């Protein structure tokens, strides 16, 4: 039977394996939508609490959550620090007592860190400058394509990182063994062609058990105008045809960019004009999958990429498209893992450089960026 086997290691205590004490775990990767800030994610691990087991998971310790697939490959899917522990002490001997260990990832930790008079000198590598100031944050970042404002800033670390991402029109991806990762937009490996998602399970297809299609108009992803405030200017751009037909619907964003504010506003104004484009919500379990497909899926969890999804509206014909795993939620017990995925269509990430015939975008520059 296909199944993900979970393990939990305490990196802060010489990679101590505490899996034998774990009853269940849950965590989330990503963000709810392509226009939502990366506020950060948390994990919850329920463990036995008896005879000093709590000493194996101290507050501020760093834990890694691994998933081993049927191929034997073990992928690290969540890296976070312990922020709190909640104890459920049973009466009597207390032998069946439990504790819930709460973890925060790098972006969530950045959200509670305010930078005071922080000097940023790099135009294209400010995320790494922020990480260098905060040792509790582990976030690997490639240089941005668009220059960001330099100077001295007093700001929240998470807010500044999101202002950089908004200006660069980027994403945060999972990257196995390195926690979360801000990849370069010219990175052409962001495409998974080993599996797709569909109705039936096979060696090359992950079978979803439930699918919901949510149109942009009901998902806060429908706009005909964008106002973007950069470091030195505010620009409003309008998709004229769409605004004439649907009316003005304005998206606003504050970014850290020091250049190309007009291009950013133009891209936001034109990328979200279709009210009928759908975001897909997929739900399934690991035990319902083919062994080979589950192994490839585990790789997708560990290294986020675009992936093909096939679905058929009732009474209609099959629709196929590439989607970005925007948010993935795991709920794991000893018997099975339930997975919920929010899948964003490629349309919303057309600013990627994807020199690949699979997606048919053959260029060397990002759209809207010279």
Based on the model shown, name its key terms:
370 residues; mainly beta; 14-stranded mixed β-sheet; three-stranded mixed β-sheet; 39% strand
Notes on the structure:
It is a single chain. By secondary structure, this protein is mostly beta strands. Helices cover 15% and strands 39% of the residues. It has six helices and 22 strands. The protein has helices at residues 106-110, 126-133, 157-168, 240-246, 261-271, 291-302, and strands at 5-10, 16-17, 22-30, 42-48, 62-68, 74-88, 98-104, 114-120, 139-141, 151-156, 173-174, 180-182, 191-198, 205-207, 210-215, 225-229, 234-238, 250-254, 278-285, 306-311, 319-332, 337-345. Strands 1, 2, 3, 4, 5, 6, 7, 13, 14, 15, 19, 20, 21 and 22 form a 14-stranded mixed β-sheet that branches. It has a three-stranded mixed β-sheet with strand order 9-12-11. A three-stranded mixed β-sheet has the order 17-16-18.
